[in-house]
Amino acid sequence: MTTIRLVRGDITRESVDAIVNAANSSLLGGGGVDGAIHRRGGPAILDECRKLRASRYGKGLSTGQAVATTAGELDARWVIHTVGPVYQVSGSDPSLLASCYRESLRVADELGARTVAFPAISTGVYRWPMDDAARIAVETVRSTPTAVEEVRFVLFDDRAYEAFDRQLH
Ligand code: ADP
User: What radius of gyration do the chain's Cα atoms show?
Assistant: First the structure.
């Protein structure tokens, strides 16, 4: 059984085996949680991202996929980078957002991570409505077989925290 915990705060302050990054497909950094992870984690993370670009991901990481690097100076062993879908009012595919959580857990299992922290993927610049994103996140984690013992959703503000809390209770 995987325990789900909610924390309100900055994911770069968490002490876990793996911190999930809401990256963009370039893997070369961006704003929001991505920027915060690279700032606090230091240059080792970007170095490894650049190497991944040069070797396996010349065209970038596809939406819904996940890949791990070192966590640099963060209090974690790995950062798992995943690319959330951009929300479009005209129609967005929830299975791509679910895939971010599922693929990140698959990578976490490959690494042997037992504690994993997730941000609310796609709910910032990518504009996915918070309640729907929270439902997809919680349902996907609950229905994905994994050896991860604790999934910690680290929510940056009250609005995100409350949305996830409603899904759990
Ligand atoms: P995306 O491009 O996937 O939307 P963002 O980084 O813009 O990614 O936002 C994803 C979520 O992460 C948003 O809810 C945002 O408030 C939150 N966020 C931003 N910085 C942090 C942080 N340091 N720790 C945890 N969550 C964060």
Answer: 14
Ligand 1 pocket, mutate which of 7, 34, 156 (most atoms under 8 A from CB):
156
Q: Is 75 in the pocket of ligand 1 (CB under 6 A)?
A: no
Q: How far apart are CA 114 and CA 38, in angstroms?
A: 23
**pTM (global) more than 0.90:** yes
Q: Measure 65 CA to ligand 1 centroid, in angstroms.
A: 18
Strands 150-155 and 3-8: parallel
CATH of domain 3-168: 3.40.220.10
124 lines ligand 1 (CB under 6 A): yes
Domain ranges of the chain: 3-168
Does the Cβ of 41 fall within 6 Å of ligand 1?
Answer: no
- The three-state secondary structure class of 9 is coil
Dihedrals phi, psi of 55, to nearest 5 degrees? -95, -70
pLDDT digits (tens, 9 = 90+) for 93-117: 999 999 999 999 999 999 999 999 9
